[in-house]
Specification:
By secondary structure, the chain is an alpha+beta fold. The protein has 26 helices and 26 strands. The longest helix is centred in the middle third of the chain and has 38 residues.
């Protein structure tokens, strides 16, 4: 019996090649999309799980309230780590302070220096993250000890032995390689940490570190901790939430431990609440995968039921000789399962071929792990697809009345087409929703990219001051570069314009609400900062070396001027508690146009700029726009090499740094376009098959109409209008759903576009055009056929 079913199924498959190819290709594409999305989701869900202590590693953060708004910060003060280690030992097995990843110059003896990214950390950190040691020890007890990743050791020493060798860092301290660890995987928030250096070396290389280690208000470091076995994060958080109370903090701090399992997928915080993160993309694309597979199943259902009259006689004969309905259902399900199995094999091949390109789109190294678990799940998926795709056709075809079929009086009728039309509408609802979503994502990215940043990004270079030579020779570098004419100006700053500024409290002024704790983004700069960036002074004047009093002057942005509440901000006085001057009063000399220095999707924060070179970390260089960068960069490089000979000239373009802020959204857009295109293609495959079958069914009607004088455009309109009507119905259903969904998505951005009418006009026009192009070939082919061939037997 089973062999008989398979034989009949194979014969039907080979007899109707076009129908079979459309169905198998549609199912294969749908299943390939599911495989790709599944592989990507699996990669995202495994983020950070390479660490042995994954379930017990936590990042110490705190909620900080300024200006009535709460931020969740991963920068903490140094004393907090000691307090957690000593007073909460029952909760924490290990606690370690670490710096944030930064670039430093590394050089082994007799080799050229290189710039690489790593961190400084206290000795327990390597044990907390359970580094896989390849050589040496993970201990950082020795003040000059340094751990290298395998790739970093190879970059510095080639195939030679790196262990126990010396490395010079930033031209001012010599470190000893005491351990080599396996590279941290790409799907980890700790990737790119190429080396870990003992904390004492950090204190020796940066004088400010030692100065803030006793400050409870200096949020400058990261704190990583490992929970005690059996410790519950929620209970730990309930105990440590007040750990910063009683230490002179005026930002209402609330301490919390965030487990590693939440870092990647739930990394978004707003007003002290964890509002999600990358998990929304997993849910979104997981849903898209389900819908794309559903589209392929709908194609199968539609084509199978559309061909019902061709299978009616077969059903009638089988029933008349004793076949039960259940046997017919099994036969038709067998046919769909055979197609699903063939599609499943093709889907694996398509997914493997598409994987390199898809990995590039997703920005991850994604692989299909074809182990027994994969085949078990995939077999179940294939069975499910076969049953879903074949269930309705099987039940529908097996219900035919054999008497009517064999008498020749059976007709499917108009009512039989209603479910088919409903499925077509559902297909287009999904496709139109995807198109609207993709268009809105594109508009949002374009809207934010075109946002005025308040300064000139083009030709602006940033150079980290990671050697003493750069600190001591800044004036000489500036003077010589200005003499060359290669630059407009050069300045020092605590931060780059695209890297965000320090947020600090400690400001007071006349009329300030005593119940409010203000926080400002503060940048310490040299007087040429504004000219170098090209900011716009809207009131008052810029900093100038001609005014000695500017050491006690500040500029504020428009948001800060409004927040301070002065009727006339220029000339008003603001007190700064943490001033390095004996007199902590600063006079506002100007107001500058708001500059986007953090996320371009957020509102601009109140900002203050003041003169101070003691905290400078960066040199900013504005290249002369009258010259090409190709001729300017070598000039700038030679001057830096002259005064900083022991280090490579490592710089970045701020325009590129700003562009990197959009990488996440651009990745979402690329993936959305990818899946939308395939969803539309699968829908078009089904439309093409249905259009072919409908043209074939109406061949005699078309012949009669042509004989009676119908033109090709009239016949084309006759065959196309039903599909146009269905697209219109689908659009009316999809448009309000997509509008609500995309408005909810946009609500997550402070600076956002709108879902305007043009989005829907464009989408409807695109959907209509795709539909007409898909069905027109069959419609025109049928309309231009010779009517004699259709009518000669009548």
């Amino acid at each position: 019996m089973l062999i008989n079913y398979l034989t009949i199924a194979w014969r039907n498959l080979t007899r109707n090649r076009v129908y079979s190819i459309i169905n198998i290709l549609g199912l294969a594409l749908g299943m390939a999309i599911v495989l790709l999305i599944g592989a990507w989701i699996n990669d995202e869900l495994r983020y950070n799980k390479s660490f042995a202590n994954y379930s017990r590693i936590v990042d110490i953060r705190h909620h900080s309230t300024h200006n009535g708004h709460t931020q969740t910060r991963d920068q903490d003060c140094f004393p907090l780590a000691g307090k957690l280690r000593e007073q909460y030992a029952a909760d924490f097995k290990r606690v370690a302070v670490n710096s944030f990843p930064d670039g430093h110059i590394l050089q082994r003896e007799g080799a050229d220096p290189i710039v690489s990214t790593g961190i400084f950390a206290q000795s327990d950190l390597a044990d907390i993250v359970s580094l896989r040691m390849l050589a040496g020890s993970s201990s950082l007890e020795d003040p000059s000890s340094m751990l290298l990743s395998r790739s970093q050791a190879r970059a510095l020493f080639g195939e030679g032995v790196a262990l126990n060798k010396s490395i010079r860092m930033d031209n001012k301290m010599v470190l000893k390689v005491t351990g080599i660890y396996e590279d941290i995987p790409e799907n980890s928030d700790w990737k790119g940490r190429n080396y870990i250096v003992n904390w004492t070396a950090f204190e020796q290389s940066a004088s400010w570190v030692k100065g803030v280690e006793g400050e409870w208000n200096a949020n400058s470091f990261g704190i990583l901790a490992e929970l005690q076995p059996g410790a519950d994060v929620e209970r730990v958080n309930a105990r440590i939430r007040t750990a910063l109370d009683g230490h002179g903090r005026n930002d209402k701090p609330v301490v919390l431990a965030v487990p590693m399992s939440r870092w990647h997928l739930y990394g978004e915080w707003k007003e002290g609440r964890n509002t999600g993160g990358a998990i929304r993309y997993l849910r979104m694309f997981g849903s898209i995968g389900v819908f794309v597979l559903l589209l392929a199943c709908i194609n199968f259902m539609n084509l199978a039921t559309a061909r019902s009259e061709r299978r009616a006689r077969e059903v009638g004969i089988r029933k008349s000789i004793g076949s039960m309905r259940g046997q017919l259902v099994l036969q038709f399900l067998g046919e769909s399962l055979l197609m699903a199995m063939l599609a499943a094999g093709l889907a694996v091949l398509l997914a493997e071929l598409a994987l390199p390109g898809f990995s590039a789109l997703a920005g991850s190294r994604i692989t299909l792990e074809l182990g027994w678990r994969f085949w078990a799940v995939y077999s179940a998926l294939t069975l499910l697809v076969g049953v879903i795709a074949g269930s309705y056709p099987a039940l529908y075809l097996s219900s035919f009345n054999p008497v009517k079929v064999l008498k020749g009086t059976f007709r499917a009728g108009a009512a039989a087409a209603i479910p088919r039309k409903a499925l077509i509408v559902l297909q287009f609802v999904v496709s139109i929703s995807l198109i609207i979503g993709t268009v809105v994502v594109f508009r949002q990215i374009a809207f934010v990219k075109n946002r005025p940043v308040g300064y000139a990004l083009e030709g602006l270079l940033s150079v980290e001051m990671n050697t003493d030579d750069l600190v001591h020779h800044f004036r000489a570098i500036r003077d010589e570069l200005l003499e060359t004419g290669a630059v407009v100006d050069i300045t020092q700053s605590t931060n780059t314009p695209t890297g965000g500024a320090w947020q600090q409290s400690g400001f007071n002024w006349a009329g300030k609400d005593p119940n409010v704790t203000p926080g400002f983004d503060i940048s310490f700069v040299t007087p040429e900062f504004g000219k170098t960036l090209g900011w716009q002074v809207v009131k008052g004047r810029d900093f100038s070396r001609q005014f000695a009093t500017d050491s006690a002057a500040i500029l504020v942005n428009e948001v800060a001027a409004k927040y301070l509440g002065f009727k006339e901000p220029v000339g008003s006085v603001v007190n700064y508690l943490y001033s390095s001057r004996a007199d902590n009063r600063y006079r506002i000399i100007g107001v500058v146009k708001d500059m986007v220095m953090r996320s371009p999707e957020e509102t601009v924060k109140p900002a203050i700029y003041m003169i101070d070179t003691s905290n400078s970390n960066w040199i900013l260089v504005k290249a002369n726009p009258a010259r090409s960068l190709a001729s300017t960069i070598p000039v700038i490089t030679s001057v830096f090499h002259k005064y900083n000979p022991g280090a490579p000239f490592d710089f970045r373009f701020e325009s590129e740094s700003y562009a990197r802020k959009f990488l996440s959204e651009e990745r979402v857009l690329r993936l959305a376009v990818f899946f939308t295109v395939f969803a539309i293609f699968i829908s078009c495959l089904g439309l093409f098959g249905l259009a072919s079958f409908m043209a074939e069914q109406r061949v005699r009607e078309i012949g009669v109409r042509k004989v009676l004088g119908a033109s090709v455009p009239q016949l084309w309109a006759l065959l196309s209008r039903e599909f146009v009507r269905l697209v219109g119905i689908a659009f009316l259903i999809a448009a309000p759903m997509a509008w609500m969904g995309m408005n909810r998505w946009l609500a997550g951005y402070d600076y956002r576009t709108t879902v305007g009418v043009s989005v829907f006009i464009y989408t409807f026009g695109l959907a209509l055009s795709i539909t007409l192009l898909t069905v027109s070939w069959q419609a025109v082919r049928a309309a231009t056929a010779n009517p004699v061939r259709a009518l000669r037997s009548e």
